[in-house]
Amino acid sequence: PEPAWAEGLPKPPPWRSHGDSVVFENPWMTITRHPATAPTGMAADYVVFRPTNLAVGVLPVHADGTVVMVGQQRFALMNHSWEMPEGGAPKDEDPFDGVRRELAEEAGLEAAHWVRVLDMELSNSITDERAVTWIAWGLTSVPIAPDPTEIITVARVPFRDLLAEIGRGTIRDAMTVATAYKAYHMAIEGQLPPALADAMLGR
Prior knowledge:
Blueprint: E1 16-17, E2 21-26, E3 29-37, E4 43-51, E5 53-60, E6 66-74, E7 79-83, E8 86-90, H1 95-107, E9 109-121, E10 130-141, E11 153-158, H2 159-168, H3 174-188, H4 194-201
Parallel strand pairs: 5-10
Antiparallel strand pairs: 1-3, 2-3, 3-4, 5-8, 6-7, 6-11, 9-10
Helix pairs in contact: 3-4
């Protein structure tokens, strides 16, 4: 879909793919190579990373305005990352089922109330990966069950502290950053229950 303000504005010609070949494939991803033509007409050799799963994540908010974050080691950057509960939902699965599973597995929580807040394209110059995120509240505990490759630390922090750490650059996960800022916007604009918004904002 196009934004409302873009209606009537010109768009360049689309990219054109002239076939594809699989460079690499495993249960989690496929990498494809394409002889292509750019919108300018220039010939290109394009490679696309195609994840098997849809990325899903949730910002869990307690009634006192604290949010639940999980810390774990990430392989690609070889760093320790603090994030909201996240994971992958197979594309033949309802993403809502996938995100509820991740909330239980990583944070040991289930939620009575959910609102879907973002549908994002992640690094869309090199991958077709998409992410869908929610905000959830009305939290209760359930047994935690992390993935066999994960050691997870769970922390409960004031929402404004999360925003401050994003500003300091200590929280860099894109889904968490985008969802936290969206949650702030929704709290300010009256798009969340008033008591929850007031607790999040410290009012």
